[in-house]
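Model: You mentioned two targets. I'll fold them one after the other.
Researcher: Yes, keep them separate.
Model: Target one:
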Amino acid sequence: MKISADFTVVPDDFAKAAAPEYRAGGVPVISFPFYVDEVNPEARYLHWTFTDPDSIPVCGFEWIHWTVANLPIDALMFDFNDSHALAIPPDFSRQMPAMIPEAVQGRNSSASKFVGRDNDPAVIMRYNGPQPPDKDHDYYLHVWATKEPLPGLNQGFWMNELLHKLRECGEAPDQGGMFVTGKA
């Protein structure tokens, strides 16, 4: 599987420099577009995590920015420029619940009791854009594809639950990833 985007640095609209109308609770909430290509033809569902490993020295753990599970591949559009690549459009995180209700999004690190944010689902169970406090950070988007949906994952699942379900799914999921940079 190949994961790509039209950028290597997350554009301002999806990150720390996002305009006020692209934020909720002070957090950038408009998810960035990307492409998924060369998926195993037997796969029917996508799942992903978007995390910040460079946050470990800052806060003591890898910050979770976005998690998605059980997204039916058939519900996605192909990229107009590449008939094989699936296109994840901008602002997909906020649009997905209405467009594809069977897909679920998990909690991000804003949901942590140690962070102290309110319980607004728009902030704690959707995309949170990069906002590195100390220097530019490298963020990792990891995508998996499976033949069957992962059972037992509901809206607001935790990332570790997704990883356990991937391990227990009875197949070796197709997978790929990419790094992007978030500007400080």
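Model: Target two:
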Amino acid sequence: MALTKKGEFMYGTTSGDTQAELRSYSVANRHEAVRFASSKCDCGCRTFALQTDEEAGVAIRTCTDCGQEHLMGDSADYIEKSAPEGHECVCENEAFELVSGVSVYEGTHDVRWYYIACHCVECNLVGVFADWKCEAGDAAAFLAKV
């Protein structure tokens, strides 16, 4: 399915749809995401509850199967001064497939901005639920931890 707009929200069914929505959002934010990664738990599950604190630059995903919590990206560096809050879809579901994207500084592979897009597994809504300026160094190393 391609991205479809219903009212003020976008809907899609694939990680490609989620990535496309993330890219569109990042272009509008003037920091285009150029590298992407989908989250996957060690148990193999791809759905998570998401908590973020955009001011602190912290994201935590919790596996819907095994309950394992994982600090995303460089969140471990900022967790002590954060107050993460949970995300909920407009349909009130709290389980999402997650796609992370980063913009990088021109001519480098260094992260400049971090985006977390969610795909609701209940109603198929897709959207960027969190983003912030991020000085995390190498994009590949950063995205390996999402």
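Researcher: Noted. Anything on target two?
Model: The mean pLDDT is 96.
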